[in-house]
Amino acid sequence: MTNSSLQARKVKAIARGQGNAYPVYVERAKNAELWDVEGKRYIDFGTGIAVCNTGHSHPKIVAAVKAQLDNFSHTCVMVNPYESAVELAEKLTEIAPGESDKKAIFVTTGAEAVENCVKIARAHTGRRGVIAFNGGFHGRTNLTMALTGKITPYKHQFGPFAGDVFHAPFPIDYHNISVKHSLDALNNLFKVDIAPCDVAAIIVEPVQGEGGFYAAPAEFLQALRSLCDDHGIVLIADEIQTGFGRTGKMFSFEHAGVEPDLITMAKGIAGGFPIAAVVGKSEIMDAPLPGGLGGTYGGSPVACVAALTVLDVIKEEGLVERAAQIGAIFNERLTALQAEYPQLIGEVRNQGAMIAMELVSNGDCEQANTALTQAIIAKAAKYGLILLACGFYGNVIRFLPALTISDELINEGLDQFVRLFGEAANC
């Protein structure tokens, strides 16, 4: 069995739209390392796109899942529910930002969580419009593609999209888009495209994921909270990539001291098992009628016990605090690399262990160096690394290590990355 033979089979059997970044086929994975079918070892700086915050195959999660499978695998939480779902809902409502009384629902994917947020907001307000931001990513379903603020590859060929969705600029200091610019654009939307009394919700990622790991300034999130309060608009926090300790807080909105009305949760919630949730203020969450929310696989009992164990691991191992330590190590090492290549590395940024390096040409933020980014990703496996790219122009390398990774493994991986960068930069 080889990577190339499996890739040939994959190309023949799986539609090209579901591509893969690496022709590397995993045989096993442990914590922050994985091994392919040929026995080669890799340091994983992607963790399945911020899913395995607690590392691959954490022994406590594996044990909990095995025990659940001995009992039952599925009954549907909407038919015959089970204690683990109730307990998980209780714990998620406890840890969500803010003091308001909260409730939860369970679905299967992040996109489902976003769609249900819009449904809930519309039911609560009786309004139609939703505002999202340029560069934001909210999913691949028809409605979530409409919310996503980037055409290629997510929206190209797939329209028409759901209506009553509007976009505004996301504040990015590095690209000279100020908080004032974004807020002025929102006010312009209210004058030109949709009255605030027709807006059901504003949805925002506190750190844009696919958009390039740009963190929303605290003052911006605070201003959105005030604006939504003034106009009776539901504020939705898309915490799918930022949640569960990734940014140095349990949820990124906590950095700004802001309580959203609804929160989407997925990815890092269950250590790799498919489950997602919406958590929000009770009076808003209860707006839909019974049966209006749900899904066959939402709240899988296997995923529920995994998620409960993830919460225990995060607490027991201090992973929220560990995220900040990881981010500091990456920031120091990557900033040193930036000093060697100031014309190519435009900015290094992080919020906790959500770390990015933006590549440019001639030191100019307006000259995205997509070619160099693609070259680094293409060569990463050669250096025993799993890396991910992102960004509006595809010119950002993002690092999403497991929060359980050791300092030694971080530095080993970054030593390899420095060598990889030097090769790619000098080609």
TrEMBL record:
Xref: PANTHER family: AMINOTRANSFERASE CLASS III
Statement: the UniProt record of this protein carries the keyword Transferase: yes
Organism: Shewanella woodyi (strain ATCC 51908 / MS32)
Protein family according to the UniProt entry: Belongs to the class-III pyridoxal-phosphate-dependent aminotransferase family.
Record's protein name: 4-aminobutyrate aminotransferase
Gene Ontology biological process: gamma-aminobutyric acid metabolic process
Keyword tags: Aminotransferase, Pyridoxal phosphate, Transferase
A GO MF label: identical protein binding
EC number(s) recorded for this UniProt protein: 2.6.1.22
Names of the cofactor(s): pyridoxal 5'-phosphate
Highest taxon of the lineage: Bacteria
